[in-house]
Amino acid sequence: MYLRKTILATGVALSALATASFAHAEPTAEVLHWWTSGGEAKAVAALKEDFQAKGGKWVDSPVAGGAGDAAMTVLRSRVLSGDAPAAVQLKGPAIQEWAEEGALADLNDVAAAENWDDVIPAAIQDVMKYEGDYVAVPVNIHRVDWIWANPTLLAKVGADTVPTTWDEFNALADKLQAAGITPVAHGGQPWQDATIFETVVLGLGGPEFYQEALVDLDDDALNSDTMKAVFDQMRKIRGYVDADFPGRDWNLATAMVMNGDAAMQIMGDWAKGEFLAAGKVPGKDFLCAPTPSENGYLFNTDSFAMFNVSGDDKIAGQKLLAELIVGEKFQETFNLLKGSIPARLGVPMDKFDDCAKKSEADLKSAQDAGGFLPSMAHGMALRGHLSGAIVDVVTAHFNSDMTSDEAVSRLVEAVELAKD
Ligand code: BGC
């Protein structure tokens, strides 16, 4: 009798314990991301701190490599081996691709509780949802089409502003080169070549051409004189970089501008995160201006997708992380460090600098003028096999003496093959 009572009592106690531990499962999230440069690391640390302050356990899985190419390779092998990380930095059509595979968890209950439909812009909601269900959360809006410049070096050749046309850009670069200054800081990695390429497509072709060529993959646009002129301009820019550019990481190229080793870098505003992390002041130590275009704006929204995992602690971790990311406080803190602007509507911009304020103002005017366009180089416009086909040609051209005619015909061919 005594024994039976003890067993029963122990059973009750154990099940009470189990219930308690379920209710208080420590929210845990393994977070796979590629934010490893100075500015990026500061920004992601802010997310980690918020998460920990709310009782979360953060398991950091950084995979170095700009634009996330290496991170995406690691992700594929992790999912294939049945060991998906809980939260993954993922964006654009790749979110849809993973959702189609059935790999993503839906976040609809957090979305409803937090009113995401009211605070996330409609265009960004479309990217975050799969068949009407939220499967990812947006962190920011990065603008890709920027020039970052060193005002002291520009002043050496009598310039006090960043060029506003590509002809002016070339004229300034020629002057800088004649004065012994490297005009363009660049890292020879395919995604960095593609980053420059898409800004030139936008600038020389205009927003409509960009949409036709790099979003709709229209044959006539790809096979056009305009596209030939784009490759001609890429050849010019190739002449403005220093000899050591192959393989250089983007943040080292940013450091060249910062340290006076090169005058300008064409890069998204994560570069501003590097300047800020180094204590540099916009408008004084460095200049920011959009690459020449008519009311264009190439956007790149970082986001996190939650992969299917099991375990109450992990599921609680995913929900907590998703809630924090879309929250107003996080959107402000993170984006002040990252160089981007909030993806959430209504976050006050008063603490942001002039580059961010310009980004926000230009975003609105680009939207009105039809120039708000997804970045091809940063995985916002096309699925990976299609953007990969374009980037390969861009890089092959940049790193050889291929003519523009040949680049155009290779581009048309590569896109055709990839479409099949
Ligand atoms: C990401 C940024 C990141 C940059 C360099 C971009 O594709 O959107 O968040 O800072 O790559 O790694």
From TrEMBL:
Keywords: Signal, Transport. This is Probable sugar-binding periplasmic protein. The keyword Hydrolase does not apply. One of its GO terms (cellular component) is periplasmic space. Part of a binding-protein-dependent transport system for a sugar. It is found in: Periplasm. InterPro entries: Bact_solute-bd_prot1 (IPR050490), SBP (IPR006059). Belongs to the bacterial solute-binding protein 1 family. SUPFAM superfamilies: Periplasmic binding protein-like II. Residues 1-25 form the signal peptide.
